[in-house]
Amino acid sequence: MSTFAQLSGLRGGAGVVRVIGHRGARGVMPENTLEGFSFTLATGVQVLEFDVVMTADGVPVVTHNHHLANSATRDAHGRWLTGAERKVAEMTFAEIRALDVGGLDGRTAYGKRFPDQAFLSGIRVPRLGDLLDLCASHGENAPYLLLELKSDPALMRDDAARADLVAAAVSDVRRYRMEARTVMHSFDWALLDECRRQAPDLPTSYLSQLPENADDPGEDSAKSVGPDYQGLTTTLPQTVAAAGGQLWCPYYLDVTPELVSEAHDLGLSVLTWTVNETDDIRRLVATGVDGIVTDYPGRTQRVLIDMGLTWN
């Protein structure tokens, strides 16, 4: 596991807990946008987490849900989308590019979750290549990337489509020479097997969320594409290590000091998501995790400073 250079920026250490900007800095900037990622990097955060979905014409784009959320999408005239939400896989990149994702509709359940998010206009869904180009422009200071592949529940049995998603993402990573900074990241553990088959030089990160924890409103659930947790015969860290993973990325309510210690004994780094409240940040730091995935990187930095810690 130590042969993966990418892991050096994702391990914690004496006095160090990594801060990972979730979808950039979703709490204060439009999520999964170049503007949000640029803001996060300007704060000194050196790890980004983001989501990749494929368009109808085979373009990997950076967006979380399989359908464009009406609560976060406006048309060319600035009007909120209404009606049935449009599926990314059924739209061309040009069609998606015509829409504005720079703000949240504050009347919706999703919009009310992030009242401090800046409202911008003229902001577009980026291609994966656009984000990789931005990151590569930082040269030796390029950030580390948790590239989350979003599995479409409707395509779980379509091996060719799943392989194409991996191939397109890996191709972009190689085109922008970001291999040494990229980790393949997914709730779909079987898809990570395909990542290792196509790109054995890229480490794999296993996202998990136990079924008893509720999904957040306004977001696609990953529960239908994840493993059968009740059918596991070993602990989550043991299962991830046996599968060939290098990182375990559990939901913050599923983390205990004992599981973190076990994961470390198995050689895994532990990054927990999505940790936003000050008390939760402090609690998760105390468990010994390597990093905090958060919608509020600045808030997390402040907590770490107060605790006498740093993030880089």
Automatic annotation (TrEMBL):
One family name in Pfam for this protein: GDPD
Domain GP-PDE positions: 17-304
Top-level taxon: Bacteria
Location of the region described as Disordered in the Swiss-Prot/TrEMBL record: 203-227
GO MF annotation: an example: phosphoric diester hydrolase activity
PROSITE patterns referenced in this protein's UniProt entry, alphabetically: GP_PDE, PIPLC_X_DOMAIN
GO biological process: lipid metabolic process
PANTHER family: GLYCEROPHOSPHODIESTER PHOSPHODIESTERASE, GLYCEROPHOSPHORYL DIESTER PHOSPHODIESTERASE
Name listed for the protein in its UniProt record: Glycerophosphodiester phosphodiesterase
Record organism: Ruegeria pomeroyi
